[in-house]
Amino acid sequence: MNSVEIFEMGPRDGLQNEKRLIATADKIALVDMLSQAGFRRIEVTSFVSPKWVPQMADAAEVLAGIHRAQGVRYAALTPNLRGYEAARAAQADEVAIFTSASEGFARANLNASIDESFERFAPLMAQAQQDGMRVRGYVSVVTDCPFDGPVPPADVARVAERLLALGCYEISLGDTIGQGRPESVDAMLAAVLDHVPAERLAGHYHDTAGRALQNIDVSLERGLRVFDAAVAGLGGCPYAPGAAGNVATERVAAHLAQAGYHTGLDPAAIARAAEFARTLRSNGDGNA
Ligand code: HMG
Ligand code: MG
Description:
This protein is α/β, with parallel strands linked by helices.
């Protein structure tokens, strides 16, 4: 049977945008529930500036508190060497660096140009290679940028190829504000695939306009077999105005099952985690 992996983003991409500070114990409880659902990779937190993203200030405590399940890799975002060293000290199993296909979003999210973001990645990657740490790479705003408008596919291909050349084991393509259409995602993938093979790519689609599942379908057609998703559709990016959450894990899992793909996930365990996740959301069942 054809297999597809869902990389669970809820605890990081999902929770980072919540205005109300979520208790560390609740973050740990969410990760522990997700650890029972059959994921092979869960993005737990970010080692970023707490001034930029206060919600992730307890990154080390969350990683220290979770019950690590066998066969699950626990990942963390790291924008620079300082974040990398903290993630390694907290025993993240892998890290992810993140940059942008547009200059406008790089500036808003990282206070850097694209080139400057790569200057920060170089020492991080050198240290990661020495440590044998796996590093994933994200390219944000792969079709539409909230600051610069439509993003040329060639710009995405250039940044994806740069991340691959730097040593990232996989490049995740982010439709950060969820404005991608099947046609624009397809054109973007066509350009990227000239430089990066499908086995090294993942789709990371936010569902702002409700087109994420269609965008996953065109990506499957193009040979992608890894998709990022967040349980209960939690989240968004605090530096991307108007961004909604990642496409909901439970919807992607059901959609893939219906199309005959095997994900290895337990729908009941995901449903329990989704129910809990909704209680953490300020506009959900939680009272904040
Ligand atoms: P900066 O202000 O340009 O840099 O931020 P700085 O070096 O002047 O640092 C500012 C302060 O942060 C300093 O503290 C540093 O020490 C501290 P101060 O001296 O003022 O007290 N600092 C750190 N603290 C903890 N951990 C660190 C760290 N580095 C510096 N690693 C910086 C530059 C990159 C740090 C900042 O812009 C930042 O943290 N940005 C992250 C923003 C972010 O997390 N965005 C959301 C995640 S990305 C996303 O959601 C997209 C994605 O899902 C894909 C998609 O959907 O497209 C991945
Ligand atoms: Mg995202």
